[in-house]
């Protein structure tokens, strides 16, 4: 099962909280560094079909590709697999009175969203990486 949390390696990008605050907007900081969630259906990439690579907005690491993005109609961009299995880290998240699996950027440990399994989406992995748009930056291939 791919969404089993694993131990976290040391991040490649390390900044102080003050440096993160200077680098990110308040909304970006709230999601990426404080594990917040943007409101559903408000993110810029929720319904985009532009081909390209989705990078971490905090550090620029490649996280997802448009070829793995699918229309989940859940209010956030959804992917069935990361660009590379080492691009993200999965961490147990028992907040809000439920058991979930948090998705973090492996490069800078910024919060991206959560991954869910067994929801019945017709994807090759039966997984939905539910990712905040504000955690991503799309680099179009054209």
Word description of this protein:
The chain is mostly beta strands and 142 residues long. The protein has one domain: Metal Binding Protein, Guanine Nucleotide Exchange Factor, Chain A. The chain contains 2 helices and 9 strands; from the N terminus they run ααβββββββββ. It has a 6-stranded antiparallel sheet, with no helix packed on it. A hairpin with a 7-residue loop joins strand 3 and strand 4. The model is unreliable at 1-6 (pLDDT under 50).
Helix-strand layout with pairing:
Layout: H1 17-23, H2 26-32, E1 52-56, E2 62-65, E3 69-70, E4 78-79, E5 88-93, E6 100-105, E7 111-117, E8 127-131, E9 136-140
Antiparallel strand pairs: 1-2, 1-9, 3-4, 4-8, 5-6, 6-7, 7-8
What keywords describe this structure?
142 residues; mainly beta; Metal Binding Protein, Guanine Nucleotide Exchange Factor, Chain A; 3-stranded antiparallel beta sheet; 10% helix; 30% strand; disordered N terminus; Met_Sox_Rdtase_MsrB_dom
Gist of the model:
Helices cover 10% and strands 30% of the residues. With 142 residues, it is mainly beta.
Q: Given the structure, what is the number of helices?
A: 2
Rounded to the nearest angstrom, the radius of gyration is 14 Å
Number of domains: 1
Mean pLDDT: 91
CATH superfamily: Peptide methionine sulfoxide reductase
Series of secondary-structure elements, N-terminal to C-terminal: HHEEEEEEEEE
CATH architecture: Beta Complex
Largest sheet, order of strands side by side?
3-4-8-7-6-5
Structural class: mainly beta
- Using DSSP, what is the number of strands? 9
Strand fraction equals 25-35%
The fold-level CATH name is Metal Binding Protein, Guanine Nucleotide Exchange Factor, Chain A
Catalytic activity: L-methionyl-[protein] + [thioredoxin]-disulfide + H2O = L-methionyl-(R)-S-oxide-[protein] + [thioredoxin]-dithiol
Cofactor: Zn(2+)
Keywords: Metal-binding, Oxidoreductase, Zinc
InterPro entries: Met_Sox_Rdtase_MsrB (IPR028427), Met_Sox_Rdtase_MsrB_dom (IPR002579), Mss4-like_sf (IPR011057)
């Amino acid at each position: 099962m791919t969404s089993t949390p694993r131990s976290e390696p040391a991040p490649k990008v390390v900044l102080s909280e003050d440096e993160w605050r200077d680098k990110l907007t308040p909304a970006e900081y709230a999601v990426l560094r404080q594990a917040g969630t943007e409101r559903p259906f408000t993110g810029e990439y929720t319904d985009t079909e532009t081909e390209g690579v989705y990078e971490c907005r905090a550090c620029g690491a490649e996280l997802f590709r448009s070829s793995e993005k699918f229309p989940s109609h859940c209010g956030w961009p959804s992917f069935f697999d990361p660009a590379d299995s080492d691009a993200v880290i999965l961490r147990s998240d028992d907040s809000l009175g439920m058991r979930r699996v948090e998705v973090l950027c492996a490069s800078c440990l910024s919060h991206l969203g959560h991954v869910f399994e067994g929801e019945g989406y017709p994807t090759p992995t039966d997984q939905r990486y539910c990712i905040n748009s504000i955690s991503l930056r799309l680099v179009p291939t054209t």
